[in-house]
């Protein structure tokens, strides 16, 4: 479907591991009402049937707000439900394999950790956006590789695709990343764990 935004920009929400699909949809709707620009369905503990149920429930919700839904890790799931894209890291499907299966207009995000060279390669190979981080300690992914904030401005000077920052981003540190020029900030805990999710989404979105 046609999206209102052609690019990845602003607040990029990453779902937490929640089993209750109704609750997940409620929380996601609050982020959408708060101005999220992109949603990633990421659930590292769900089994395949639950991932199918949850991602299928989120897709019409995202479509209602004209926000792209990106699936983390699972290429076949992204194809099966007709999601707007897929996000992959070093242990996931390769870009050639993804390009064989996903329609050309679908979004492909690639994790680049602290490696600018990996991002340059990913852009050449057809990534729609690249992600760097973790920039701060992350409760969602405690063992994530760390990256320096200066990497963002360096990346922006050599890449054409949107640059996403991730990892432990909250309302106290997000501005330091936006000031370096990142196109989007990917947030899970500080968004879905907020007392008022919609308000938190608005606060993050206003930084752009
Ligand atoms: C926007 C965004 N950036 C980075 C990641 C991390 O991807 P990956 O390294 O594959 O780790 P998991 O998320 O699969 O644990 C991401 N999901 N999204
Ligand atoms: C998936 C991922 N990759 C690096 S940090 C991270 C988790 C982001 O979640 P949070 O915003 O809660 O740190
Ligand atoms: Mg992954």
Automatic annotation (TrEMBL):
Biological-process GO terms, alphabetical: thiamine biosynthetic process; thiamine diphosphate biosynthetic process
Manner of cofactor binding, per the entry note: Binds 1 Mg(2+) ion per subunit.
Protein name: Thiamine-phosphate synthase
Alphabetical list of PANTHER family matching this protein: THIAMINE-PHOSPHATE PYROPHOSPHORYLASE, THIAMINE-PHOSPHATE SYNTHASE
Annotated 4-amino-2-methyl-5-(diphosphooxymethyl)pyrimidine binding sites: 40-44, 72, 111, 141
Catalytic activity: 4-methyl-5-(2-phosphooxyethyl)-thiazole + 4-amino-2-methyl-5-(diphosphooxymethyl)pyrimidine + H(+) = thiamine phosphate + diphosphate; 2-(2-carboxy-4-methylthiazol-5-yl)ethyl phosphate + 4-amino-2-methyl-5-(diphosphooxymethyl)pyrimidine + 2 H(+) = thiamine phosphate + CO2 + diphosphate; 2-[(2R,5Z)-2-carboxy-4-methylthiazol-5(2H)-ylidene]ethyl phosphate + 4-amino-2-methyl-5-(diphosphooxymethyl)pyrimidine + 2 H(+) = thiamine phosphate + CO2 + diphosphate
Domain of life: Bacteria
One GO molecular-function entry: thiamine-phosphate diphosphorylase activity
InterPro entries, per the entry: Aldolase_TIM, ThiamineP_synth_sf, ThiamineP_synth_TenI, TMP_synthase
Residues reported to bind Mg(2+): 73, 92
UniProt-annotated binding residues for 2-[(2R,5Z)-2-carboxy-4-methylthiazol-5(2H)-ylidene]ethyl phosphate: 138-140, 168
Family designation: Belongs to the thiamine-phosphate synthase family.
Gene: thiE
Keyword Metal-binding: yes
Cofactor (UniProt): Mg(2+)
Pfam families registered for this protein in UniProt: TMP-TENI
Keywords from the UniProt entry: Magnesium, Metal-binding, Thiamine biosynthesis, Transferase
Pathway the protein acts in: Cofactor biosynthesis; thiamine diphosphate biosynthesis; thiamine phosphate from 4-amino-2-methyl-5-diphosphomethylpyrimidine and 4-methyl-5-(2-phosphoethyl)-thiazole: step 1/1
Top enzyme category: transferase
Stretches assigned to the Thiamine phosphate synthase/TenI domain: 11-191
Entry function: Condenses 4-methyl-5-(beta-hydroxyethyl)thiazole monophosphate (THZ-P) and 2-methyl-4-amino-5-hydroxymethyl pyrimidine pyrophosphate (HMP-PP) to form thiamine monophosphate (TMP).
Any GO CC annotation of this UniProt entry: cytoplasm
Enzyme Commission number, as recorded: 2.5.1.3
């Amino acid at each position: 479907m046609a999206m209102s935004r052609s690019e990845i920009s602003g607040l990029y929400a990453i779902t937490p591991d929640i089993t209750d699909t109704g609750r997940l949809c409620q929380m996601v709707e609050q982020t959408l009402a708060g101005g999220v620009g992109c949603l990633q369905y990421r659930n590292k503990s769900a089994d395949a049937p639950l991932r199918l149920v949850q991602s299928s429930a989120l897709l019409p919700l995202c479509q209602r707000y004209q926000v792209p839904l990106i699936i983390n890790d699972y290429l076949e799931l992204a194809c099966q439900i007709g999601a707007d894209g897929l996000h992959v890291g070093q242990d996931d499907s390769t870009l050639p394999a993804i390009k064989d299966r996903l329609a050309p207009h679908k979004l492909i995000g690639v994790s680049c950790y602290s490696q600018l060279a990996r991002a340059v390669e990913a852009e050449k190979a057809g990534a729609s956006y690249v992600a760097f981080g973790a920039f701060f300690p992350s409760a969602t992914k405690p063992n994530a590789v760390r990256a320096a904030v200066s990497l963002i401005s360096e990346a922006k000077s050599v890449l054409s695709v949107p640059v996403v920052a991730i990892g432990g981003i909250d309302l106290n540190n997000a501005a330091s990343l936006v000031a370096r020029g990142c196109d989007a900030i990917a947030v899970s805990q500080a968004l879905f764990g907020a007392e008022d999710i919609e308000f938190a989404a608005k606060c993050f979105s206003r930084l752009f």
